[in-house]
Write a structure and sequence with these properties.
The protein is built from 24 helices and 17 strands. By secondary structure, the protein is of the alpha/beta class. It has four domains: about 150 residues, DNA polymerase beta, N-terminal domain-like (DNA polymerase, domain 1, Orthogonal Bundle); about 90 residues, Beta Polymerase, domain 2 (2-Layer Sandwich); about 80 residues, DNA polymerase, thumb domain (Beta Polymerase, domain 3, 2-Layer Sandwich); about 220 residues, TIM Barrel, CATH 3.20.20. The relative contact order is 0.07. It binds 2'-deoxyguanosine-5'-triphosphate and calcium ion (2 copies).
């Protein structure tokens, strides 16, 4: 049987939820599977592996005995009887229909029942033939919109979210370290550049016995199909659908090969141009200089630093390698010294059981401390989000008391909880809770959770108006996008950034792997305008706190340095900045890049 990772278990739970929903099952049951999918998908420890090693399943919030038994069943067999049963009632491909904007369970059911539609291709065919509009509840306009969405979906190459790719990449790298003679195994490509999604994995192995590596790779239990294989390279499709390219090089070429396979392609081309100007040739084996009688002499390649040095550059961190100005910055020795995970001293966005989180205040506090954080802001949803059981002023007041009490107990233990709220920005730009209660909080995180489709001018005005509140501290997930599933809402981000500057407000970089919002380009824009970024987990479980590393990756792609990040500050400094923001003082004081141009980033 193919080994199962958390993302596979999550996918099965998601599929069960979809199929149950199409069958109009009890909504609570559907929700239980959806929540379980999210929880399992977010756990950073491989559950199937733990089970195989005879370890007990860790306590997972919201996962009762029934779901835990299903996890064990999937870990042991790769599937569950429930899913098999549902597949007998409904075709598996039908769940893809739910991913099409405008198609809910009701419409999917109608399409299946009346038109026998089972796949996206069949849906496109039915729409083209004008059969969809004949169904009750579908108009010609709806049909056209569905067809357009299906075609867009079918032609788009599938990409995998970074955090999901990590679940498959890391065990594979571990496995390839096993054969005798293997030196390094490095995950290159977009994965190393920490791109929010990856198209495929690029694995580089150093060894003087490439045959052994190739043989080991071919035997990897997750390989579904070998697409190509040669003496030093192979490509395979994994059971998860992820494609992997493996390359073996001798140890002395490691740096050159890492540089080549990390890309991006645009960055490589720009570096190659620099090399040519110096009369050098650069490829995955090294950097070469022409010698007498057409011979070549290798001048670099063992480490990436030697490769960069050969073309006259300092080391450029992988996250910057997009040919987006990093080569010019490197030439001028003005590369940013990028923020690191260890620079974060706190987390400014988290939920508990009081709303849609799964852990208690205490559990969240202790988990944050375990990760080395000094403070954690509890920011529940406000009352407008009824589905998440959002807080009204009375419940906020109650939580304030609970946090005060817990902070008293935790005093001197290295972790402080901050009192916050993730308050809804209503359609008219007012906040969902009165000033009288916001004034009692340490910080206020404002967020849009409804009416994503407002026209640009109105959506922008809505957010700008909300930012006029003197209590507004951080704008959460500023674009609202969900990676690969929901477009950002249409707003003028530059206006929002400038407003944040004027008001002393920070912008969140939400580290949840489905959001990673701000995007890298907007991070750069915010930095240029002198606005601070809050790298926040938006944790709904203790496990979610570990997503901060993906947020830091995205921040690095956005050229963000330690000084650009609000939560790299000490608690005292953080409080000072929030008070200044309340007074409407612009731009939280930020050292204007004293280090710039002198410090070099390290490998
Ligand atoms: P992905 O997989 O779509 O998320 O993006 P990458 O960047 O991982 O691209 P991929 O897997 O096609 O190739 C891995 C790296 O190999 C890429 O970042 C740079 C290098 N590479 C691939 N093709 C070329 C090429 O034609 N020229 C150069 N200079 N480098 C290339
Ligand atoms: Ca790749
Ligand atoms: Ca590739």
């Amino acid at each position: 049987m193919t080994p199962v990772h958390n993302a596979d278990i999550a996918r099965i739970f998601e599929e069960i939820a979809d199929l149950l929903e199409i069958q109009e099952a009890n909504p609570f049951r559907v929700r239980a599977y959806r929540n379980a999918a999210r929880t399992v998908g977010d756990v950073r420890r491989d559950l199937a592996q733990a089970i195989a090693e005879g370890k007990p399943l860790p306590k997972l919030p919201g996962i009762g005995a029934d779901l835990a038994a299903k996890i064990e069943e999937i870990a042991g067999t790769g599937t569950t009887k429930l899913l098999e049963k549902l597949h007998k009632q409904l075709p598996p491909a039908i769940t893809a229909l739910l991913r099409i904007p405008g198609l809910g369970p009701k419409r999917v059911r109608a399409l299946h029942r009346n038109l026998k539609v089972q796949t996206l291709d069949q849906l496109a065919e039915a729409a083209r033939a004008g059969r969809v509009r004949e169904l009750p509840g579908f108009a010609a306009k709806t049909e056209a919109a569905i067809l357009q969405a299906v075609e867009a979906h079918l032609t788009k190459k599938q990409r995998v979210k970074l955090a999901v790719a990590a679940q498959y990449a890391e065990p594979l790298a571990e496995y390839l370290r096993k054969p005798k003679g293997v030196g390094e195994v490095v995950l290159c490509g977009s994965f190393r550049r920490m791109k929010e999604t990856v198209g495929d994995l690029d694995v580089l192995v150093t060894s003087n016995a490439p045959e052994a590596v190739m043989a080991q790779f071919a035997k990897y239990p997750e390989v579904r199909e070998m697409l190509a294989s040669g003496p030093t390279r192979a490509s395979a499709l994994l059971a998860s659908g992820l494609q992997v390219d493996v390359r073996v090089v001798p140890a002395e070429s490691l740096g050159a090969a890492m540089h080549y396979f990390t890309g991006s392609k645009a960055h490589n081309i720009a570096v190659r141009r620099l090399a040519q100007a110096k009369g050098l040739k650069i490829n995955e084996y090294g950097v070469f200089k022409a010698a007498k009688r057409g011979a070549e002499r290798r001048v670099a390649g063992e480490t990436e630093t030697t490769v960069f040095k050969a073309v006259g550059l300092p080391f450029i961190p992988p996250e910057l390698r997009e040919d987006a100005g990093e080569i010019e910055a490197a030439r001028r020795d003005e590369l940013p010294k990028l923020v690191e995970l260890g620079d974060l001293r706190g987390d400014l966005h988290a939920h508990t059981k009081a709303t849609d989180g799964k852990n208690t205040l205490r559990e969240m506090a202790l988990a944050a401390r375990t990760l080395g954080l000094e403070y954690l802001a509890i920011t529940e949803h406000s009352r407008h989000i009824a589905m998440a059981h959002g807080l009204d002023p009375q419940r906020v007041a109650k939580q304030i008391d609970e946090i005060d009490q817990l902070n008293g107990e935790l005093e001197g233990k290295g972790i402080t909880l901050l009192k916050g709220i993730e308050v809804d920005i209503l359609e008219d730009g007012t906040l969902d809770l009165p000033d009288s209660i916001l004034a009692r909080l340490d910080l206020v995180v404002g967020a849009v959770h409804s009416r994503f489709n407002l026209p640009r001018a109105r959506q922008t005005a809505r957010i700008l108006a909300a930012m006029d509140s003197p209590y507004f501290t951080i704008l959460a997930h500023p674009s609202g996008r969900l990676i690969e599933s929901r477009e950002p809402y249409d707003v003028d981000m530059l206006k929002i950034i400038r407003k944040a500057k004027a008001r002393g407000i920070a912008l969140e970089l939400n580290a949840h792997p489905e959001r990673l919002d701000l995007s890298d380009t907007h991070c750069r824009m915010a930095k240029e305008e002198g606005v601070l970024i809050a790298i926040s987990s938006d944790a709904h479980t203790t496990f979610d706190l570990e997503n901060l590393r993906f947020g830091v990756g995205q921040a690095r792609r956005g050229w963000i340095e330690k000084a650009d990040v609000l939560n790299t500050r000490s608690l005292t400094e953080l409080r000072r900045l929030i008070v200044r923001g309340r007074a409407g003082e612009s731009g939280p004081a930020r050292p204007r890049r004293a280090a710039r141009g002198r410090k070099r980033s390290k490998a």
